[in-house]
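Sequence, structure tokens reproduced for reference:
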Amino acid sequence: MQTTGVTLDEIRRRRGPFLPVSERLPALIRASGCLDLLARRLVGLFCSVQCPEHIAPLALDVVQTISDAESVIVSGFHAPVERECLEKLLCATAPAVVCPARSLEAMQPAPLLAKPMEQGRVLLLSPFAPGMIRIDAAASAQRNRFIAALADELFIAYAAPGGKTEQLCRDVNHRRPGKCSAHGARRSTRNAPERGGAVVTGTDEPLGQGPA
């Protein structure tokens, strides 16, 4: 895949007021696709791999609402619900920023991405240097921190109790309180056995603001 090296200064220039200077990002980021998407408001999407079935349709509705508001979803699109959201976005001719947990150089765009990339609706971003082709837990965690730093706000479709997604949001809200958002989905799921659409503790306090 043909890629471009984008400096952190260039990312900040394109992100304008959206990207706080305090966030830690790599000095050089590899990119392929439409860099103009970086000028849009970015909403990071996360969902635990193990996710209750009732969460998926709710997450799809919220992602559609975010896209209708002219924001762009940024995600690794690795977990099943995340992948469903990507498929819905691209079928609806909406844009997306895709961040794989590996370098871009050895990748071939998935068939789902090929046409949207030609249409300027997809941007692939990676914080990894060329040659990083093994996807493991450490790479996934680094990728998720990258997305959390890049995005203006996070939508957590579902975070398994005690899991990595829950811990990520605790860390994010500790640094930037309120960045993890329900986008109205908590109201839709508050009576469900498992909570989705927001990351909450057992007492429904927002992560990073309630009891440890």
The chain has a mean pLDDT of 79. The chain has one domain: 4-189.
